Amino acid sequence: MKSSSELRFIARERLRGNWGTAIVSCLIVYLILNGTSILYSLIQLPTSLESLTEAMRYGYDEAPSSYYGSITSFISYMLMLFSALVNFIFGGVFTHGLASFFLNIIRKKASIANIFDGFKKFSECFLSALLIGIFTLLWFFLFFIPLAIILIIFSIALSNSPSISNFGNNAYGGIILFVILMLLLDIIIIICFALVLFRYAFVYYLIKDCKKTNPLNYIRQSKIMMRGKYFKFLLLNLSFIGWYILCFLLCGIGFLFLTPYVNATVAAFYEEALELSKLENKIIYVTLDNENTNFQLNNFYEI
Smaller CB count within 10 Å for the chain: N or C? Predict the structure, then answer.
C-alpha cells in the first residue's frame, strides 16, 4: 500500500478545486448533527453569566434563584435531548453521506448532494451505526474495566510500599512514578482500543459500494479488508497530529480545512484497500455494485 504521505498527497490533489464544496459539505453535516447543541450552549450562556453575577454579588449561598434561568434550563435540556435523538437516528446516515461525498472526491465525481446519500439506504446506515455503537460499548467495557481494576490494585500497592513511596528520596516520588506509569498504560489502552475500532472504518464506504445486505456483513467485510492494515491506518491517523495541534492553536478555525483533508485521505486509504481486496479475492461477505466500483486502480493513481 501507499505510504501515509502518498495518500495525503492524493487527497490534496483530489481536493484541488473542490475545497469550497468539501468545506461546505462538512459544515452542513456538522450543523445538522450539532446545531441544537450549539443552540443549547448559546441559551445557557446568559443564564450562566447571570448566575455568576448574582453569586459574586450576594455570595454563592445567598444568590437568589432566577425564574428566567429555570425556563432557559428547561429549554436547554429539551434541546440537548433533541440533539441526542437527532444523532441517534441520523448519525449513521450523515456519516455515510460524508463517506460517500469524499469517496466521490477521490473518484472525481462529487457533489454536495452526496451528503444526503444515506437517506437512500436509511435502514442499512441506521442499523450499522447501532451495531457499531453496541460493539464499541462492549469493547469499551472490555478495555477500561480491567484498567480500573489495575488502577485500584496499583494504588493499594503503592500506598503500602515504602520503597516506592521513598522513590528518589523524594516525598512525591511515588506519586510521580504512579502518574507516569498510568499515563503510559492509558496510552497503550487507547492505542489498542483505537486499533479495535479501526475494524469498522470501512463500513459506511461499503454501504455505498455494495448491494443491500445484512448490516453485519458490512462489518465482517470491513474487518477482512482491514486485516494487515491496522498499523498502517494508525500511522496514517497519527500523521495528522501536528495539524490537529495547529488547529487548536488557531482556536479551531483550521478544522474547516483539516476535516475535509482527513476525510479525503481516509477515503483514499479505503479506495486502495478495496482494490487490493478485489485483487486478492477478499470480497467475501458483500456483493460489489459494479456501477459504483468501476474506478480502476491505475486511474486512482493518476494525479
Answer: C
Contact (Cβ atoms closer than 8 angstroms) between residue 40 and residue 79: yes
pLDDT for 67 equals 45
Q: pTM here?
A: 0.81
Q: How far apart are CA 93 and CA 154, in angstroms?
A: 43
SS3 label, residue 288: strand
Distance, in Å, from the CA atom of 297 to the CA atom of 19, rounded to the nearest integer, reads: 24
Residue 228, by phi and psi: left (phi above 0), alpha (psi -120 to 50) or beta? left
Cα gap 59→52, rounded to integer Å? 10
Residues whose CB is less than 8 angstroms from the CB of residue 238 and which lie 6 or more positions away in sequence, other chains included? none
Torsions phi, psi for 114 (to 5 deg): -60, -25
Grid cell digits, residue 256: 474547516
